[in-house]
Amino acid sequence: MLDIELLRSDPEVVKEAVRAKGMENSDLVDQITTIDSEWRRGKTELQTLKTELNERGRWIAELMREGSRDEAQILVSENAGLKDRAAGIESSLKNLSDRRRRMLLELPNIPHKSVPAGLMPDDNTEVGRWGELSTFDFRPRPHWELLESLNLADFSRGAKVTGAGFPFYIGYGARLQRALIAWFLDFAASEGGYTELQAPLFVNAASATATGQLPDKEDQMYEVTRDELFAIPTAEIPVTNFLRDEILQSRDLPVRYCAYTPCFRREAGSYGKDVRGLNRLHQFDKVEIVQFVHPETSYDVLEEMTSHVERLLQALKLPYRKLLMCAGDMGFTQAKKYDLEVWSPGQECWLEVSSISNFEAFQARRAGIRFKDDTGGKPQFVHTLNGSALALPRTVAAILETRQTADGGIIVPGVLVDYLGTDRIE
């Protein structure tokens, strides 16, 4: 959520952010400022009225001491009307405040000045690339063929049990999932200094609102209507809300957490070749890294977190490219975001396996996460960041396609051999 003071002082900056992110409701800014002006006028009127009531209270007390009870009673009667008027203003102010907050929740974060303009994926900027694209002396097979031939996953039985996008993993397919999760978590703890959390897989509306999934992504989430809960689309939601409505000490920053969770996404509107195999699932596994940091350090931390994820891909020997996302393609809540995409030789395309984002104070303001300096002063909002480290489905797809052999086997990445218990899947 944006600071209301920004809309008061420079509403054009906010309007430009709305346009930059491809939203069509730039008039929302004017609506909010109109409501805010009405709220401020009401606040001033209420303060004036309360001052008058306090002054009248002193007059009444003085008259009672002097024995002028009749005059005092007249003032008491007048005060009753003023108190009713004050109560009406207070009710109106609460209504205006609630409307203002609901509308503020619909405004996107402001893109950082380094973020390129644009609305489409083609407007994203490639800022780095690592590794040589794999070459083969045979036709590389797409991962869905390898999954079937090696009996690593079963999509049809998953569809029978639940529906499309909910596969079973079998044998070394299941063990590969477990190996990657364990290695990702161990790497985050040892190399990144992250504390591991085991997080809830369902959250309430307040949590989803705090991180910006509501009111922006309702259609993408599975909802348990009977209990008013949502299945998490990412561990970002419970992990960020772990510190909701808390005040940290500046000496304790940064706070780093990592968590493995299954993730659940409806992926409404997805269709075609991009959903084949592991490309786009409704249930998938992911390890998430989250940091709460001092505002002065958040952009250095963004680069640090991106480097952390890059080291994972390099250790897996997966060629990748790094994209700086344009304003209209990076999402509602982000101020700046990098995507890392691995090369899929079987599909001859790039697959996104990680997004690393800086939200600045956008989530923290919604979630009420602040910090206080040792010197005292008013608490400030932290900056929050998170990243996929990593999402498994497309990472698995890239491993299978990149490390396949002519006889149909898979050479296991060296960092996973001890976790998996074999150096080859066949």
Find the CATH topology of the largest domain: BirA Bifunctional Protein, domain 2
Using the CA coordinates, give the radius of gyration.
28 Å
- Parts with pLDDT < 50 across at least 5 consecutive residues: none
Name the CATH superfamily assignment of the largest domain.
Bira Bifunctional Protein, Domain 2
Helical element count? 13
- Say how many strands there are: 18
Largest sheet: 8 strands, mixed
Q: What's the topology here?
A:
Blueprint lengths: L3 H6 L1 H10 L6 H40 L2 H36 L20 E6 L12 H7 L3 E2 H7 L6 E2 L2 H21 L2 E3 L4 E3 H7 L11 E2 L4 E3 L4 H6 L5 E3 L5 E10 L18 E11 L4 H18 L4 E5 L11 E9 L4 E10 L3 H6 L2 E3 L7 E2 L1 E9 H11 L7 E2 L5 H4 L3 E2 L1
Parallel strand pairs: 4-9, 8-14
Antiparallel strand pairs: 1-11, 2-3, 5-7, 6-7, 9-10, 10-16, 11-12, 12-13, 13-16, 14-15, 17-18
Structure characterization notes:
There is one protein chain. This protein is an alpha+beta fold and 426 residues long. It has two domains: 4-104, Orthogonal Bundle (Helix Hairpins); 121-425, 2-Layer Sandwich (BirA Bifunctional Protein, domain 2). 42% of the residues lie in helices and 20% in strands. It has 13 helices and 18 strands. The protein has helices spanning 4-9, 11-20, 27-66, 69-104, 143-149, 155-161, 172-192, 205-211, 236-241, 298-315, 362-367, 392-402, 417-420; strands at residues 125-130, 153-154, 168-169, 195-197, 202-204, 223-224, 229-231, 247-249, 255-264, 283-293, 320-324, 336-344, 349-358, 370-372, 380-381, 383-391, 410-411, 424-425. An eight-stranded mixed beta sheet has the order 1-11-12-13-16-10-9-4. Helix 5 packs across helix 12. The protein is elongated and about 105 Å long. The relative contact order is 0.14. The mean pLDDT is 94.
